[in-house]
């Protein structure tokens, strides 16, 4: 082919080729949120927060001397990180403080058991409580037991908890711990043991709160380690009567707890509040690293990264709740902040450990808004997706704000597959935290906080209308 003919072919090809696609229009909000995401991934603040908390304060049972140290530590920490209006909000609680605890099989042959008292449990007499064990393979079997059938006996529920990424296994078994003592007492039991709500194979038992019912006697209650629950199951399978002695010492007294809060003021709409947080208290056997030192670290680090480089349009608030484990912080905070609830744009609480985020549930009706579409695109590279299912809550401490005051909520799910190996036990320690996974969760929260605090999104305006009452 001659040079002139070749040139003609090239010109014809260029003339008939499809025009180039127009460049995608830049989304300034998404670009800024992506920059926040990337800063969060590189920021060491979250791990530093939880490392200092666990080393300098340690376990923080509400009503204990350590809880006051945690309050002072949190106040100083938020001020050092540049938050404004840092303060502590006091509220009354009934403090439950653990004493010496032990359990022992007395027949058919002596053997010590690894147990831990449930939060709020009544103490035994000083000499303990002894009785024949009645074993239930499932909590439903206890509920099916006839009234009076457990008179003088120690009821033991051995149903194992299922491991699940979304923590649904814990939800399915929560009633066995919280309501089980009263259900056993209604049937005549003198004490109650439950297999730890745990997915690991450690001999460390897992504690947690119970809820006594007003129509049942308050019997002492404790959790068995997974290993010792399986031991009792094997003994019971041999057909011989098993007797057990349980000793629990605890004290309860009127006390006070504190929620510590700080803000990054909004430059245009300071009265509108984007609130995130975690809970400051912890159970006493471990150091409260994953429950909920990590949650607080995520909220604090995400708020700081999202709000300190450029002042946000709306106010960003961090709330570190002072008595979540025994259920006192939720109503106290909702009552104290009832007047400003209509001005809360959205609330969220991080309280599911330190592993990576994988799903976000938004307030109903908001998923397809431009702002939340930008958010979904921002967190997709993190391996996080925005669910079509709306959020139903976000954490125990903000539940009353959501259910009673109608405040919109965001729920960011982190991988809970390992969380209940250590949750509420002596194994809840700093070594369980992978800093890279923690930073990924911070980035997921930080992008959301940034977009909401720097846009006009109104989650209430997008919520579907409630169906009329019949």
- Give the SSE string: HHHHEEEEHEHHEEHEEHEHEEHEHEHHH
Overall form: elongated
Number of separate strands: 14
Q: Any guess at the CATH architecture of the largest domain? A: 3-Layer(aba) Sandwich
3D structure, described in words:
The structure is a single chain. With 470 residues, this protein is α/β, with parallel strands linked by helices. It has two domains: 274 residues, Zn peptidases (Aminopeptidase), CATH 3.40.630; 152 residues, Glucose Oxidase, domain 1, CATH 3.50.30. It is 34% helix and 23% strand. The chain has 15 helices and 14 strands. The strands form two sheets. Strands 1, 2, 3, 4, 5, 6, 7, 8, 9, 10 and 11 form an eleven-stranded mixed sheet that branches. A three-stranded mixed sheet has the order 13-12-14, with helices on one face. Helix 2 packs across helix 9 and helix 11 packs antiparallel against helix 14. The N terminus is likely disordered.
Question: Which helices and strands occur, and which strands form pairs?
Answer:
Elements: H1 3-16, H2 28-42, H3 45-56, H4 65-80, E1 84-107, E2 111-113, E3 115-117, E4 129-136, H5 139-144, E5 154-157, H6 168-178, H7 180-186, E6 191-195, E7 221-224, H8 226-237, E8 243-264, E9 269-279, H9 289-307, E10 314-321, H10 329-336, E11 344-349, E12 357-361, H11 370-379, E13 385-386, H12 399-403, E14 411-414, H13 419-422, H14 435-453, H15 459-462
Parallel strand pairs: 4-5, 5-6, 6-7, 9-10, 9-11, 12-13
Antiparallel strand pairs: 1-2, 1-8, 3-7, 4-8, 8-10, 12-14
Helix pairs in contact: 2-9, 2-11, 2-14, 3-9, 9-14, 11-14
């Amino acid at each position: 082919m001659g040079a002139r003919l070749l040139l003609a072919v090239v010109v014809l090809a260029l003339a008939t080729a499809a025009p180039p696609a127009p460049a995608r229009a830049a989304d300034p909000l998404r670009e800024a949120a992506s920059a926040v995401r990337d800063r969060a991934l590189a920021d060491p603040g979250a791990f530093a927060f939880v490392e200092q908390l666990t080393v300098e304060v340690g376990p923080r049972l509400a009503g204990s001397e350590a809880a006051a140290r945690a309050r002072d530590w949190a106040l100083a920490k938020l001020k050092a990180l540049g938050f404004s209006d840092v303060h502590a909000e006091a509220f009354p609680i009934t403090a439950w403080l653990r004493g010496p605890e032990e359990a022992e099989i007395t027949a058919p042959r002596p053997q010590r058991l690894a147990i831990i008292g449930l939060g709020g449990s009544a103490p035994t007499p000083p000499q303990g409580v002894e009785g024949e064990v009645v074993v239930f393979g499932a909590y439903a079997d206890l509920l099916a037991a006839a009234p009076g059938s457990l008179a003088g006996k120690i009821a033991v529920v051995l149903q194992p908890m299922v491991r699940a990424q979304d923590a649904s296994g814990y939800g399915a078994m929560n009633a066995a711990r919280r309501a089980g003592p009263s259900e056993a007492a209604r049937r005549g039991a003198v004490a109650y043991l439950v297999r730890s709500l745990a997915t690991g194979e450690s001999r460390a038992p897992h504690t947690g709160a119970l809820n006594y019912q007003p129509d049942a006697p308050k019997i002492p209650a404790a959790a068995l380690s997974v290993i010792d629950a399986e031991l009792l199951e094997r003994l019971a399978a041999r057909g011989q009567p098993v007797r057990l002695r349980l000793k629990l010492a605890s004290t309860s007294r009127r006390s006070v707890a504190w929620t510590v809060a700080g803000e990054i003021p909004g430059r245009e709409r300071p009265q509108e509040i984007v609130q995130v947080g975690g809970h400051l208290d912890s159970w006493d056997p471990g150091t409260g690293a994953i429950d909920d030192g990590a949650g607080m670290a995520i909220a604090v680090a995400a708020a700081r990264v999202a709000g300190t480089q450029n002042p946000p349009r709306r106010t960003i608030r961090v709330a570190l709740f002072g008595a979540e484990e025994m259920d006192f912080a939720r109503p106290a905070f909702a009552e104290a902040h009832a007047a400003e609830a209509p001005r809360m744009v959205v609330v969220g609480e991080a309280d599911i450990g330190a592993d990576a985020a994988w799903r976000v549930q938004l307030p109903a009706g908001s998923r397809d808004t431009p702002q939340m579409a930008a958010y979904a695109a921002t967190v997709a590279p993190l391996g996080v997706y925005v669910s079509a299912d709306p959020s139903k809550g976000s954490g125990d401490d903000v539940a009353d704000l959501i259910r009673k005051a109608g405040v919109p909520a965001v729920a960011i799910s982190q991988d809970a597959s390992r969380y209940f190996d250590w949750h509420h036990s002596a194994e809840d320690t700093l070594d369980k935290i992978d800093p890279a996974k923690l930073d990924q969760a911070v980035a997921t929260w930080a992008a959301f906080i940034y977009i909401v605090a720097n846009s006009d999104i109104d989650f209430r305006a997008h919520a579907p209308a409630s169906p009329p009452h019949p």
